[in-house]
Design a protein that fits this description.
The protein has 189 residues and is of the alpha/beta class. It has one domain: Rossmann fold (3-Layer(aba) Sandwich), CATH 3.40.50. It has a six-stranded mixed beta sheet with strand order 5-4-3-6-7-8, sandwiched between helices. A two-stranded antiparallel ribbon has the order 1-2. The radius of gyration is 16 Å and the shape is globular.
Length: 189
Amino acid sequence: MPPARPDPLPATVAGLRERTWSRLTHAAFLRGDFVLSSGRRSTFYIDKYLFETRPDILRDVGRLLAHLLPSEATLLAGPALGGIPLATAVALETGMPFVIVRGEAKQYGTARTIEGRLAPGDRVVVIEDVVTTGAQAVRAARQIEAAGGQVLLVLAVVDRCEGARETIEAAGFRFVSLYDLEGWPIEGP
């Protein structure tokens, strides 16, 4: 087991963090046979939509994520689809604007891959839901950089501890997760 990382959250929100994890896993932890976005198979799945569509859980996740933002951040980025409600929740908590990062440009209208206002030099935090390999987070971060933003951090709600941290950090981005499956026991059904 890797050495424990220092907890980046203040002690004042420790109770909220524990209660939110319990509610999140009870709402969204599924057992079965699943294919993940990485193509890997798993005997469990954390269904982000089952916790992101619950206002009580989403609000508390947004509050907790807000504590992890670097003070110099000027913009949030929510990769489509799961990062959008998270970026919205954090934006509502902090008043910070956000952009939406599409997987690919739409073929009509503005044909943008980034929706919202991203100015050159914006200092951006990319907010992800559940990360496995980190490939989608890296893709979104690179899109932000290609558009002139500076990615300060990739911030995830849950790290499955299956290589995401290593992939994200190898790509040159700082990574923090609110929860990881090495340090937080699953409390779901």
